[in-house]
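INFO batch 0412 | record 1 of 1 | parsing
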Amino acid sequence: MSETAGISTSIASRYATAVFDLAKEGKAIKALEADVAALETAITDSAELRTLLTSPLYSRDQQGAAISAVAKKMKLSETTSNVMALLASKRRLFVLPQLLNVLQDMLAEERGEVTAEVTAAKKLTKAQAEKLAKTLTAQVGKSVTIKETVDASIIGGLIVKVGSKMIDTSIASKLNALQNTMKEVG
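INFO prediction complete | emitting tokens
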């Protein structure tokens, strides 16, 4: 992880902890969940929003006004709207995607769930995803939600990350290991 990404994640974690604690105290966890989902979708779908978050060309006031308009249009909760306004005033809107990721993890923990990041060579069928989730649930002891990405470069197999644990059964990694072994021999 690059130094900049580490700093962004650190900043995002502090803000996420504060937002989560405020939502929990105000018994607004459901509203926070809805806000996080809506913002993640908006960031994914809108290139203009991504530009607003990351571009240094917008002034602090322009970012603040735009992000307030976005929050109002999306009907976000007061807590989420205030945090976004605070991020804009501090010129830290660039951490919003990481903030949402950290909040997503905190909300999953609150529900007793864990997210497994699964990388596959091709999209898993519904049956495969269900079987994998069931197996991981048995291993982890918590309900598992699968976040799937497709990467054809792994050739076959899966790369599964649950928390700090990673299981790499991809053909690409096995080929790399075989190549390294052959280099050591010859």
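INFO post-check: The two ends are 33 Å apart (CA to CA).
INFO record closed
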